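User: Fold this, then the next.

Assistant: Folding the first:
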Amino acid sequence: MKTGKAVTELAERNRQTMNKKYIQQLAKSFAVIPILASTLTANPLQIINDRVVTMSIQASDQQFLRALDEQAKARKDKADQIDAYFSEYDMPLEGYGMKMVIEAEKNNIDWRLIPAISVRESTGGKHACKKVKNSPFGWGSCKIPFTSMDEAIEKLALNLGGNNPNTAYHYDNKTTEEILKAYNPPSIVPKYTKQVLAIMSDISNDDSIAIKNS
């Protein structure tokens, strides 16, 4: 049987042991805190950075989409003006407005040029060349056929834009007026250029791209 003194000493040793363990555990916990703190401070910043980048990309995408939307609206407006003109005079080429606008954009020519030529040459398809198919533009003096009206528009735009190597010396880097003079020289049809330009103005008064950029 332990004496009172022995019991007291045992209790003191247990207390000291418990205090030592508590201090060790507390020290371990403090050692972990900086790690947690660094994790907590790094992750939110990384998350914020990621979100900023994501938001920037989203904003850029939205601007790009808005620009595309505006281009599509402008293109449709031009096509509608062409088709409205054809419709007003009951011309067969009604419905090809969008094709004419797209091909004009591809070849950097005035979007009214092709429809205006068709009006001057064949009253918008009413009096297209009879010797060959799908030729309402008088291209090749009515000696060159096309498989479709789409192809005829594509080939005419390609040539007038100076993008056909065989005819580029006639049309490359020319203003609309110069293109028309090369297409049908004043020596052959004196009023041709003025007539086509007048039709272009009737289709629309848009002069923003009337002159081809060199």
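Now the next one, as you asked:
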Amino acid sequence: GQGEERLEEVFQRFPDLQEKRRERAGNLSGGQQKMLEVAKALLVRPRLLLVDEPTVGLAPRVAEFIYEKIATFPQEGMAILLVDHNVRQVIRLSRYLYVMSLGRITAEGPQEQFQAELRHQVKQWLGL
């Protein structure tokens, strides 16, 4: 059925998970657990997906893989609310950004506005 097709599609995107499909989630590496979270989102396909710090503690190669997968979600019909400290990735992945500091929105705007003045923006956010 459709569920099996989606599962096969997810396994094609996440070969590591297919290899480990008989393992308990708790026995997976940190990177594989993150992949599992992303894979579950692809299976369910919610209209809005909340993603909080998706790559904390991951090796750079695994983090890049996770960001690549998240970048495909809008084409799958999912809107994403991404909370992350990786400013470059957030700007790359987002259409519209909000910058928060101590619970207050300190800047907001479309992606282009942030790409153009990234170095200046980051310095401002960090108070430099």
